[in-house]
TrEMBL record:
A Pfam family hit: Amidase
Keywords assigned: ATP-binding, Ligase, Mitochondrion, Nucleotide-binding, Protein biosynthesis
Catalytic residues of the enzyme: K79 (charge relay system), S160 (charge relay system), S184 (acyl-ester intermediate)
Reactions that this protein is recorded to catalyse: L-glutamyl-tRNA(Gln) + L-glutamine + ATP + H2O = L-glutaminyl-tRNA(Gln) + L-glutamate + ADP + phosphate + H(+)
Keyword presence, Cytoplasm: no
EC number: 6.3.5.7
Keyword flag Protein biosynthesis: yes
Family note: Belongs to the amidase family. GatA subfamily.
Gene name for this UniProt entry: LOC131803746
Role this protein plays: Allows the formation of correctly charged Gln-tRNA(Gln) through the transamidation of misacylated Glu-tRNA(Gln) in the mitochondria. The reaction takes place in the presence of glutamine and ATP through an activated gamma-phospho-Glu-tRNA(Gln).
Protein name: Glutamyl-tRNA(Gln) amidotransferase subunit A, mitochondrial
Cellular localisation: Mitochondrion
Summary of subunit composition and partner proteins: Subunit of the heterotrimeric GatCAB amidotransferase (AdT) complex, composed of A, B and C subunits.
Amino acid sequence: MRRHLRQNIKQLTTSYSSGFYSPRHVVDCALDDAVKLKDLNAFIKLTPELALHQAKESALRYHEKQQKGPLDGVTVAVKDNFCTKGITTTCASKMLQDFVPPYNATVYERLVNAGAVLIGKTNMDQFAMGSGTVDSIFGPTKNVWSKSLENNDWCIAGGSSGGSAIAVASGICYAGIGSDTGGSTRNPAAYCGVVGLKPTYGLVSRHGLIPLVNSMDVPGIFARSTSDCVDILNAIAGPDRLDSTTISKPYHPIALPEPEQIDLSKIRIGIPKEYHCTGLSPEVLETWAKIADILEDGGAMVKQVSLPHTPSSIYVYSILNQCEVASNMARYDGIEYGHRADDDRSTEDLYAKTRAEGFNSVVKNRILSGNYFLLRENYNKYFEKALRVRRLIANDFQNVFENVNADENVDILLTPTTLTDAPLYKDFISLSNRDQCAVQDYCTQPANMAGIPALSLPIRLSQQGLPIGLQLMANVLNEQLLLTVTRWIEAQVGFDCLNNEQLYNIRK
């Protein structure tokens, strides 16, 4: 195991400053590991020339004591639906297989401005429409915690941001950027044993994130610890004049206390009864109960709460998702950019053949379903009613966080992230995409409906030796409290995502 991987971001950059490690050494190790671990299929494209150039510039800044900030020389991976100037951005699709953006997404631009080093663009489900990272034209991503990587006897990484999760879980990068529309950061974070944060909607710019569902898309963060997650969030959050949906008030960087300084005596933890649902594995339930007990023993008040519209959430999400997909996918017609079919008989034929060739069956099905829901005769029956129920779901969260009766309020919600540990690939693909997402996103997508911050934290390993994570949710713009409580739990459980026999064997 690389010794520098045992350090968090702050410790790494301190080592850079002292000269103990150099950015070039860490980047060389990252690129070497990315090749050794290529069977995991975490990356769609590695960027070695850019990474070495950025590492060289970072080393010079440290030599001259002119570091850009706490991320200078830190290795990162970016999901391949964030635009990167001069680097292909494919959304893991044939439609955008050769698309090279002329600009950077704001998230990536801010990472570069903070001195971070890009190792590569990571694998994902096509256009982020999935929960397993199995629908990419570049092949599926494999979970590094799998007992075997042969045949189909390996576990999925989760999705749709599975590549970024594996890039972090395997130790290639210190942090990864994903997108989260219904759980696409938290889901793979739970399966891969890393921290996965979905910030408040609008806290981080969506400019340059190729849209799936504009009203729910949020850039997400993968890291191996809460403190690393905070360092990335502080670098990328804040208003952006290029994205009108960002929150306009200034962002104040988060500073977390040390675990021993955290006082839980005034923290109220809510356990939503609706998340104890069909399909929840005994091991996840046991883990959930154990952490609730640990929080209570630590001084927090733990009580059951109700989010009554949770069972309706997955249906509402499906309708709204498909409606916005139908709208967003209309731009891919083969005229201005992206794949273009070899058919010049008519404009209509060109459109039809381009879209038939460029989209997989999952994307096509969502486009067709979305257009059906948006038909004049169906608009009120489906789309409008879904919006009304979405408001009820958001109100459920508001009622538990901001109840008029202050004694009924809670500060944090504790739930499972996923219902089980990572399923085997062969079992996962036996289900339709719709059923995959309905099961995998049950606990995660309500937070996107309400726009609240949510985080998945790895807790323990299952009897199969696979990570089990739990989800914490807080009120809008309450990332400070969310991450503080997360850090306290993290210190109690001591989960080590690099303590992985499979990872060690592959590297060896």
